[in-house]
Amino acid sequence: MAINFAYDIVDPTKVIKSQLDSARVSFKKTRETASTLRKRSLLNAISYLNNVIVKKECVPMRRYARGCGHTRQARAFGQRKGRWPKKSAVAILQVLENIKEQATEKGIDIEKLDLDHVQICRAPKIFGRVFRAHGRVTPLIKVHVTFL
Question: What is the Cα–Cα distance from 73 to 63, expressed in whole angstroms?
Fold first, then answer.
């Protein structure tokens, strides 16, 4: 079954698509992480995510920043709030490594690849539950990750 993408591809020989469905990571943190990767080169994005995992660089929190602490590393992005979402970074890194492998198979130069389209969508809620305070229960929410 073919996967539909929310991006019009002009020349399919020059575009590499990769998608991760129903990843069990936080939507808000993954959205913030992916938004910093827009218009970056592939190798730059991979090195940035590796730095996020070892806490050398942070992910600036722009939209979902309520309750987030300040860090000096966020000044590189013109922000004050930042986090180091390891689980989201590992999930996105998995997609970028897949893009890297597809590029070598197609014969496309990896150094010239840029991330033009980055899309993070909420996946359907699953049966798993997160138990909260005062007897509340909320469903687990997964994420779809798409890169072109």
Answer: 17
CATH code for the domain in which residue 47 is found: 3.90.470.10
Number of domains in the chain: 1
In a domain, 4, yes or no: no
Is 3 inside a domain boundary?
no
Whether residue 60 is contained in a domain is answered as yes
Say how far apart CA 12 and CA 86 lie, in whole Å. 32
Residues in CB range of 75: below 8 A, 6 or more apart: none
What is the domain range of residue 71? Answer: 18-147
- Amino acid residing at 90: V
Q: What are the 10-residue block averages of pLDDT along the chain, 148 residues in total?
A: 71 87 92 95 97 98 95 97 97 96 94 92 83 88 85
